[in-house]
Structures are given as C-alpha cells and as structure tokens.
Amino acid sequence: MINIQTIEQVSNSPDFASFSRFVINNLIEKTVVKLDIADFMKIPGLMNRVFIIDVIPDKTRKLQFRYTGTMLDKEFDMNLMGHYFEDVYTGSNRDLIIGSLNDVITTHQVSYLRQHIVWDNGVKKSRLVERITFPVLDEEENVTHLCGIITFMPGSIECPDISVMM
Asked: What is the pTM (predicted TM-score) of this model?
C-alpha cells in the first residue's frame, strides 16, 4: 500500500502529500479507494487542482472527465467536465500521458508523474506537469475512476522527468 513517505520522496510539493494523506486516511477501505465516500471539499486550497476521471467500461477504456478543478480548466482554456481526455489532450506526449493513466487502471497502483509536456489547443504551451493518480475500484475490484491532483508549472523549469508506480 502507498504511504506518505514514498510520496514525499518523489515530490517536493506538500500539497501532493496532503492530498494523498486525505485519500489514504478517508477514502481507502481495505486498500480500495471508495469514491462514494469522497468529500474533497475537506481539502482546503487543493480543489482547484483535483480531478476525477470516469473509466468507460468498454474495450476502448476511454477516459472521461467527471470533475476538474479550475486550474485544469484554465490550462486547457475550457471546462473539461464531460470531455474525453483523448479528445482534449493533443500534445506530443499524449501517448505517454494516456499510457501512465492506463497503467494505473491495469496495475491498480498509484502513479506519480513529473513530465515536461507541450500541447497545442490553439496556443502552443510548454509546461512541467506534476501529477499523482489513485485508482478507484468497485466491489469487483475493477477500476471505475481515477482521482488525483495535478500542478502545472512553466516548462522552462529544469528537473528530470520521472514516472513512478507505487
């Protein structure tokens, strides 16, 4: 099971540890994240960066935004709720980003990603993205949703890209 020390080792952001602590302490029942008991409003100051994605349960396994904080909507210059991730994200790192989300679905493990990305939704943007994603499972232990927190920083920040499954 994921622990806060692991998250603190890979991310310098106290917000990532706070979000993860909330998920671990409030949403996990027998190592399974339960979205129906989530009250993300109890995480002061972080809701603008929280996301919840529905995993469409067919062979395409498309990812549809259920909830996105205002920071995500601002970065993409649109309200993302209801849109498919695959249709919105057009960057050259698209396959890597979607692959990391699919890894969470396949392995049922938490994913931490720090990646320099570029996307073009009318205006080309270069960003350093930091994201932690938790799988949300149903009673049959199928991943039905992904929930997490994300931060966008200027792409000029120098640091190595990393991807860790926990």
From this structure: 0.84
